[in-house]
Amino acid sequence: MRSKQRLSKELSDCVVYCKSVHFRSFKHARIHSKFYEVASFTESKARKHLREAGAEFVHHNSRQLTRVYPTGFRTDSSNFNPQGMWNAGCQIGDYN
Predict the structure, then answer these.
(1) Quick one: which of 54, 64, 73 has its CA closest to 22?
(2) Which of 22, 25, 41, 52 is the most buried (most CB within 10 A)?
(3) Angle at 61 between CA 56 and CA 62, to 5 degrees
(4) pTM surpassing 0.85?
(5) What is the pLDDT of residue 1?
(6) CB-based contact 57:26 (threshold 8 Å)
(7) Domain ranges across the chain
(8) Cα dist. 76→43, 44, 81 in Å?
């Protein structure tokens, strides 16, 4: 028989949860997104958003969490440099 573990309410209240969501558009995110949602982009998609709708992308990043990760087609030993995405307001820049 398994014993039940009880979590401390005070400890549980300290935990922050983020929900991964599919990004549809900046307009959709502006209307429907919740503060705890995070959208993920490949580096190429994020660069495209920055090029084509830079101000809107930066505004989106000021209200929502955004994660940028390296493109899967990287065949050499170069690493993704997250600095450009951080400068645009993206909060999470994976570089591994």
Answers:
(1) 64
(2) 41
(3) 100
(4) no
(5) 55
(6) yes
(7) 15-29+36-93
(8) 15, 16, 14
Q: Is 64 exposed, middle or buried (0-12, 13-18, 19+ CB in 10 A)?
A: buried
CA dihedral 17, 38, 40, 31 (to 10 degrees): 160
Tokens of 41: 């982009």
| pLDDT, tens digit (0-9, with 9 covering 90-100), for 22-74 | 999 999 999 999 988 999 998 889 999 999 999 999 999 999 989 988 877 76
Tokens of 76: 């050499």
Torsion of CA 17, 89, 52, 69, to 10 degrees: -60
